[in-house]
Amino acid sequence: MIQNRIEILNGDITALGVDAIVNAANNSLLGGGGVDGAIHRAAGSELLEECKTIGGCPTGEARITRSYNLPAQWVVHTVGPIWYDGTQNEEEMLAACYRNSLALAKEHGIQTIAFPAISTGVYRFPMERATNIAIRETVQFLQKNNQIAKVILVCYGDRAFKIYREALKNILSEIL
Ligand code: AR6
Q1: How many structural domains comprise the chain?
Q2: Are 21 and 112 in contact (CB under 8 A)?
Q3: CA distances from residue 65 to 26, 47, 127 in whole angstroms, order as listed
Q4: Ligand 1 centroid vs 94 CA: distance in angstroms?
Q5: Which candidate, 112, 97, 15, places its Cα nearest to that of 63?
Q6: How far apart (Å, rounded) are the C-alpha atoms in residues 102 and 117?
Q7: What pLDDT, on the 0 to 100 scale, is given for residue 176?
Q8: Distance separating alpha carbons of residues 28 and 176, to the nearest angstrom
Q9: Cβ neighbours of 86 (radius 10 Å)
Q10: Candidate of 18, 35, 128, 162 to mutate for ligand 1, largest count of ligand atoms within 8 Å of Cβ
Q11: Cα–Cα distance between 107 and 90 in angstroms, integer?
């Protein structure tokens, strides 16, 4: 059942012992602030060394690395769009982040994966819109692919947590 394969969690994604955590990176893949900074700090400097060998990542795409000192096994790095005003293909690019990250996870035999709220921090994507995209893409992917057992959508703070739970309830009630 789809509702048992999506979980919303409020907390620090770097603490999760899942198969993969997703990083909201930038095009350089060389680290930054927000969740990217937290992941690099927790993983240790070897993560940056591996990222240097990748040579960057276009917006909407995803790349995978090992996770070093993190409890998760893999890090999927994806680059969300910077929000301007909604006319710059931001929604489609954000949807592509979720689709491409999940496809890459599937290729690597990953069964449990956790996402942060990509683009909703430094990149200023409005939380409600981003949440709907994150949940819709996740649901669509899970409906078509049985290999991934669980997707955890990780919120950082009570406001995001409330928005995510509300959106999940609404989207599940539309499709079930
Ligand atoms: N665990 C889970 N979620 C977190 C954590 C954490 N430890 N820390 C922050 N968040 P952001 P972006 C949430 O800014 O908007 C970086 O510098 C945060 O509350 O990390 O995609 C990159 O290098 C927010 O909801 O990523 C890029 O340059 C969400 O994670 C740029 O920021 C995303 O916020 C990417 O910006």
Answers
A1: 1
A2: no
A3: 15, 8, 27
A4: 14
A5: 97
A6: 15
A7: 80
A8: 40
A9: 11
A10: 35
A11: 26
Q: In what order do the strands lie in the sheet with 74-79?
A: 6-10, 150-155, 112-115, 20-25, 74-79, 62-66
Supply 55's token pair. 């040579």
**Burial class (CB within 10 angstroms; exposed 0-12, middle 13-18, buried 19+) of 146:** exposed
- Of ligand 1's listed atoms, the one at least distance from the Cα of 118 is 21
Q: Pocket residues for ligand 1 (CB within 6 Å)?
A: 12-14, 24-26, 32-36, 38, 80, 116-123, 154, 156, 160
| pLDDT mean by block of 10 residues, the chain; 176 residues | 96 98 99 98 98 98 99 99 98 99 98 99 98 98 97 98 98 92
Pairing of strands 74-79, 62-66: antiparallel
Quote the domain boundaries for residue 52. Answer: 2-175
What amino acid positions are annotated as catalytic residues? Answer: 36
Structure tokens at 144: 């078509």
* Number of alpha carbons in the 13 Å side-chain half-sphere of residue 119: 29
Q: Which residue has the tokens 């929000």?
A: 83
Q: Domain containing 25 — which CATH number?
A: 3.40.220.10
